């Protein structure tokens, strides 16, 4: 059994963020580090908004200052003064991370193995058992998918999506503006919207996203995307250059930052994907910075923002059409930058009250008893 100071489980975005940040700390370079990954492909894209440039600025393939949100009879288009919306291809992010200095450090190893379980002995040492052997470690960071064993009295939905990158025969897209949410599409009264990111005047990512507890067959997504391209975008002839598909958990399940046996969870397993939106790239980056510098405070949604997220999750589960209307009111009646700042959990209470006063408040009020009842039940389980 090989002995290491630190073992990382999973080579996804959160692990790469943390390795990058830890390598800036002098003591980390003295540690013997192992990264265990099952070898699955990391090719998803990441989108986020920022006010200032990040260290990944040179990797950001595309960005937009103007965003659009709309429905069947309206479309709001707004140029932002401070924020910029960014698109970062997964392959470029991982290529950058795989060429970072820590990969060439003599004390750093990568093994392609599948983790079976993690044990901890009486001395506090971890034993990571894989399909190829055993490894001991003083500390373990895990970005493996969370094990949600029982969602009774909790909500588990999925943000699931499929998108096509298409190329048209003529200029179709406005490269200065991205469509964040277009609610003009519908399917079985579910919460869904289209998302359009133009890469050039004849090439764009056109993606359908659902917030629901049901994952559909590919044909469902493809039929809606095809109809949207023809009816809304007015594109009859196009070539599909690439496709992407995925799902992200949207839950109020109490994901733990540290597991019962002391394994430090990161990424989705630690609740770094915002429950109400699925955005997580910058949250994982900030969490990595906090962990690397020894901060006790993790980048986890809590307090009033957790309360807001839970109300929306209940509405998405029980009244998806009301949630759809609430989202449209949110963007229709508030400045774009204020909404994005709110979704980043950086607004003041005064600003949040201003936002809520422009929303249909009765659908949100109806969710509070459900939240209270489930919390009470959870206490007596």
Would you kindly provide a written description of the structure presented here, covering whatever features stand out?
This protein has 381 residues and is of the alpha/beta class. The protein folds into three domains: 2-45 and 89-148 and 252-292, FAD/NAD(P)-binding domain; 156-250, 2-Layer Sandwich (D-Amino Acid Oxidase, Chain A, domain 2); 303-379, no CATH class. It is built from ten helices and 17 strands. It has helices at residues 13-22, 90-98, 218-231, 281-292, 303-318, 320-332, 336-343, 349-356, 361-365, 368-379; strands at residues 2-9, 33-37, 46-50, 62-64, 66-70, 75-79, 84-88, 108-112, 115-120, 126-130, 133-142, 156-168, 177-182, 191-200, 203-212, 238-251, 264-265. Strands 1, 2, 8, 9, 10, 11 and 17 form a seven-stranded mixed sheet that branches. Strands 6-5-13-14-15-12-16 form a seven-stranded mixed sheet. A hairpin with a 2-residue loop joins strand 10 (126-130) and strand 11. It starts with a strand and ends with a helix. The model has no long low-confidence stretch (mean pLDDT 91).
């Amino acid at each position: 059994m090989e002995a290491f100071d630190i073992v990382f489980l999973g080579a996804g975005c959160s692990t790469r963020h943390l390795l990058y940040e830890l390598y800036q700390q002098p003591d980390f370079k003295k540690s013997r580090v192992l990264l265990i990954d099952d070898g699955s492909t990391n090719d998803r894209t990441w989108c986020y908004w920022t006010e200032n440039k990040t260290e990944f600025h040179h990797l950001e393939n595309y960005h937009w200052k103007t965003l659009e949100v709309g429905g069947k009879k309206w479309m709001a288009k707004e140029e932002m003064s401070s924020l910029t919306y960014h698109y970062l291809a997964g392959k470029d992010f991982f290529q950058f991370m795989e060429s970072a200095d820590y990969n060439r450090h003599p004390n750093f190893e990568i093994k392609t193995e599948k983790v079976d379980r993690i044990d901890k002995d009486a001395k506090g040492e971890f034993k990571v058992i894989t399909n190829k052997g055993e490894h001991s470690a003083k500390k373990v960071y895990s970005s493996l998918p969370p094990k949600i064993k029982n969602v009774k009295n909790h909500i588990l939905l999925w943000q699931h999506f499929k998108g096509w990158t298409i190329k048209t025969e003529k200029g179709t897209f406005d490269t200065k503006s991205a469509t964040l949410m277009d609610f003009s599409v519908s399917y079985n009264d579910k919460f869904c919207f289209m998302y359009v990111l133009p890469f050039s005047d004849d090439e764009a990512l056109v993606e359908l996203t659902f917030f629901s507890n049901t994952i559909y067959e590919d044909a469902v997504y493809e039929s809606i995307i095809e109809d949207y391209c023809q009816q809304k975008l007015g594109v009859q002839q196009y070539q599909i250059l690439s496709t992407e598909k995925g799902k992200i958990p949207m839950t109020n399940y109490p994901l733990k930052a540290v597991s019962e046996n002391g394994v430090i969870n990161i990424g989705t397993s630690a609740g770094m994907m915002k429950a109400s939106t699925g955005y997580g790239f910058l949250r994982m980056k900030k969490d990595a910075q906090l962990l690397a510098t020894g901060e006790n405070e993790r980048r986890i949604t809590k307090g009033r923002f957790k309360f807001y997220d839970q109300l929306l999750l209940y509405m998405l589960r029980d009244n998806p059409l009301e949630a759809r209307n609430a989202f449209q009111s949110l963007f229709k009646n508030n400045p774009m930058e204020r909404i994005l700042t709110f979704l980043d959990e950086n607004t003041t209470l005064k600003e949040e009250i201003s936002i809520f006063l422009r929303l249909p408040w009765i659908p949100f009020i109806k969710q509070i008893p459900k939240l209270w009842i489930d919390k009470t039940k959870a206490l007596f389980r």
